[in-house]
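User: I'm new to structure prediction. If I give you an amino acid sequence, what do you actually give back? Let's try with this one:
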Amino acid sequence: MSAENWGDFSEELNSAVRIPYMKLQPGKNVVRIHGAPHKSKQHWEKTLSGGLKKVICLDNKCPLCALGHRPTTRYLMKVLDKTDPDNEEAKVMEIGVQIVRQIDGFYRDDDYGDPELYDIKIMREGVSRDTKYSVTASPRKGEISAREKEMLDAIPDLNTIDKVYTPEEIKESLDLVCFTPEGATAAVEEDDDFAMAASNKPASSNPALDDWENL
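Assistant: Good question. You get back a string of structure tokens that encode the predicted 3D arrangement of the chain. For your 215 residues, that looks like this:
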């Protein structure tokens, strides 16, 4: 690579938007949700180098599903991480249905409603598959500030964050173990946090809230 080409690459690298993800820590985590949740069906597959690769499911065109590998369902949300009140940050929170169901419960409660209007506290306890999350909502409602909205709007659209590969790329270019002659084809098991959320509430008269009906 020439110095000129390296310079172009370096400039592109430094100008790329870095996505700050929120990792829920043991104990209390405080967030304010902003915008609609984005549903993401994901496969996590072994690579020939020994790692794991996230591959977005292509539904009826997905070659991994054709092998019997079940995707897990996750939800991406733009949030203001308020766990440290002196250091609020706009981040992307990726969660499973265990948390989504509880947030949805507050949305369905007439005393709370739109989850963008109040802070949410997420308590994390346990480890690995024994991890449990409990969610409570603040009774104090209020809009976010203009500065906070600007921070959150700087995060790219959630449906553009993960690269979506073509079926051919998944089978031929990602070096996945399952597509080698000796590759494993066992289905991936889901834990409770990855189960599908059920929804039976009629559509809201407020379009901003209808996003929660499409989880």
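You can read the tokens as a compact description of the fold. Here is one thing that stands out. Residues 185-208 have pLDDT under 50 and may be disordered.
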